[in-house]
Amino acid sequence: MSERVVVAGAVCHRGRLLAARRSAPEELAGRWELPGGKLEPGEEPEDALVRELREELGVVARPVERIPGRWTLKPGYVLEVWTVRLLSGDPLPLEDHDELRWLGPDEAYTVDWLDQDRPAVAEVVRRLREA
Ligand code: DCM
Fold it and tell me: How do residues 55-93 score in pLDDT, each as one tens digit?
């Protein structure tokens, strides 16, 4: 049984992290996540992340570094996270989200992150504080 990989991006810009509020499905709606989505068959994780961020946010972005670790979402699905740099565009909630927020390290926990995203968020916030 192979696992399905979900890739997500910690988009960082000017010392802040981008948080996206999910609009669906019902059980996740209203919770905040690092934007991303499922790999398509044969797709490399970095390529999937670039595609997902273009589709969901309308930006051109570049994965920079993988955050160590992988987190189980539900049986058969694992989450992998990359730090991401914006190359062009201003993120908009085009698909899957109804609000975006840029959070500095001191505001990072003012939103209700999905449980499975929290370890990666914590690592990115630690890095933002050091930067
Ligand atoms: N997911 C998650 N954390 C993220 C992105 C996605 O837990 N940062 C989960 C939510 C869905 C699944 O991955 O169960 C697929 O995401 P999507 O519906 O966005 O393709």
Answer: 999 999 999 999 999 999 999 999 999 999 999 999 999
Cα 6 to Cα 80: distance, rounded to the nearest angstrom: 6
pTM for the model stands at 0.95
Residue the block writes with tokens 């946010």: 57
* CA distance from start to end of the chain: 41
Average pLDDT on 18-34 reads 97
Which of the listed residues 3, 39, 73, 114 should we mutate to test ligand 1's pocket, taking the one with most ligand atoms within 8 A of CB?
73
Mutate to test the pocket of ligand 1, among 3, 6, 32, 118 (most ligand atoms within 8 A of CB): 6
CA-to-CA dists, residue 18 to 15, 21, 42, 76, 81, angstroms? 10, 10, 28, 27, 13
Half-sphere CA count of 98, side-chain side, radius 13 A: 8
